[in-house]
Every structure is written in structure tokens, then in C-alpha cells.
Amino acid sequence: xxxxxxxxxxxxxxxxxxxxxxxxxxxxxxxxxxxxxxxxxxxxxxxxxxxxxxxxxxxxxxxxxxxxxxxxxxxxxxxxxxxxxxxxxxxxxxxxxxxxxxxxxxxxxxxxxxxxxxxxxxxxxxxxxxxxxxxxxxxxxxxxxxxxxxxxxxxxxxxxxxxxxxxxxxxxxxxxxxxxxxxxxxxxxxxxxxxxxxxxxxxxxxxxxxxxxxxxxxxxxxxxxxxxxxxxxxxxxxxxxxxxxxxxxxxxxxxxxxxxxxxxxxxxxxxxxxxxxxxxxxxxxxxxxxxxxxxxxxxxxxxxxxxxxxxxxxxxxxxxxxxxxxxxxxxxxxxxxxxxxxxxxxxxxxxxxxxxxxxx
Length: 360
Description:
This protein has helices at 70-85, 108-122, 145-157, 176-181, 195-207, 225-228, 231-238, 267-270, 273-293, 297-306, 320-327, 336-346, and strands at residues 3-4, 9-10, 37-39, 46-48, 52-53, 90-92, 129-134, 162-167, 185-191, 212-218, 241-245, 311-313. The chain is of the alpha/beta class. The radius of gyration is 19 Å and the shape is globular. Keywords: NADP, Oxidoreductase. Residues 50-345 form the NADP-dependent oxidoreductase domain. One of its GO terms (molecular function) is oxidoreductase activity.
């Protein structure tokens, strides 16, 4: 996710295995099947085709208008439950989301652990695939730093193991392999890794007989840097799943914002009225395609990513309504012509600034 200095919060095809076949959602959509669960890279972990990002849960520096209260928590809980009800069971968090360094913040891992515990009390057999991340801070150099941080995350999540553990950004290569062998994680991944760093991480883990399951990067219709810097190609080649954060450009691809109504807070400095003006032709085409399928702009934008293959989008859900909308991105598929048309229009727009280390 985007870098936000003050918060301390840095924001192949992997073989897919079809569990059930869903009916085509609307007349005119491509006649395809949609996987309920797919394997994450070469690991044995299966996750939902679309996941949910929990960056905003508990945050008071980038999201939620700099405050967190009971109303926010109820909305996040409802988003979680609606996601699970809709089959979006892959939830991504991190130790730095809702950092305790920010006034009034609540750690996202703590909230997720709370929501899962409450849900399991009602439905003990509920399935949730949990992903979290290790913050590769400069002073975390020792071999035990990864395991120590992981155990702290597990305490906050109230779990004995986590499904996917990721290095949040490049740093000194950690020892996630030890975490796998100790049974603390099922799969390991990285985040914000360039092609060269990705290949090196893959090679180091392979020596220990452990597959690199995923690389989580900023990827959307208007931020296609992973296609341009070789990351997407390397993921496909090596059998690493690309997890796409900010897949609807932090809400900008929903059509909610206009030059006269830009996002509030830090996002307003990224998605400026000038940028939103240039975005209008693309947004208009997304709307037109959505009307053809009776789908929203959000659903079209997410479907575009799913159509790339080997991509798991994780849009952030702050409300139940958003989570319900995300579910509608599945069960149908854009045509190849529509995918290409949207990419062509999007290519005329200069991407916003991404995570600084993704080019290293």
C-alpha cells in the first residue's frame, strides 16, 4: 500500500483448482467458471479469488478521518462478516496497520482476531484465511526478529498459526522458513518486491524446499507498474501469486470522486482534481461496460484484475455495503476486447506515485 511516513504504515500462473462452478451472472458475460478457492503460488494454501484488505481497520492516520470509534469498529465488524458470508474469506492485515504509535488507533490484527473469535463462537467451522506482515524496520536485523514479531502478531490475532506471513517491504532477508518448519505459518510471501528481489527471495526459499507463495504489490487498472517492471511476468513464470493491493485505487475507480469532489485526507494529495479530470474518459468507459453487465464500476475494475490471471485483488472494506459489492465482481468475466480497451484508455493516464522501494 502507499507509503505514509507519519503513520508508520507502509502502505503461473499459480495453479488454480476449481472447487465449484458458479453460474454466469448476467446475460452477455463471458461463459467462464470462477474458482471459489485457488492455490496461492506453489504452496498448499487455498484462498478466495478476491480477498479483503484490513489496512483501514483501526487506522487514524490515513483512513477514517483521523479518528477511530465504536461506530467505525461496528462498520468494520459488519464488513468482515459480510465478506465471510459472501465467500471472500481471505483477509490481509499487518502489524503496522492501526499502529499503536498513532493516537486513538487500534491495531488491525487485534480487531481481526476479535472478529474471527466472535464469528467462531457462532460458527465454529467458519473458514478464514489470514495473512499478515512483518515490518522490515531498519533495527530488526537479528535472525530471531521475524519469529519474535510473528509471535506478537499471533498474540494480537489470538491464533497459534497464520496462513500467510509476508515481508511487508524489502529488508534484510528474514527467516520465515523457520516459521514454516515450526508450524507457525502455512505459507510465506513478500510485498513491494521488484523483479530482482523477487527472484532472489524465490531462490533463497527454494534452497530450503519452501515455495514463495506470493508478492503483494500495488496493482490496478490505473497502476500497472507490475506489468511494466517485470514483476507480473516473473510471478507467472515462477508460480508466485500476485496479490493486488489498492485494486480500485483507494476508491478512485469506483466513480465516487470527481474533480469537484476529490477524496479527503492524504488521498486528496495523491488523487488531485487535475488527476481526476484526466481520469474521466476511463471512468466513463468503465461505467458503460458495467451497464452492459449490470455491474458497478468497482466490480468492473476488480474483474479486470481477475481477468489478468494469477492475481488476487484485496480491496479494503470499511462497511458491509462495500464487502457486498466486492462479491459481485465474481461469477462473470470481461471479454478480451473489453480488457484491452480499458488498458488502452488507462495507458493515457500517468500513474500516481507508488511504493518507493518497488523499483530497487
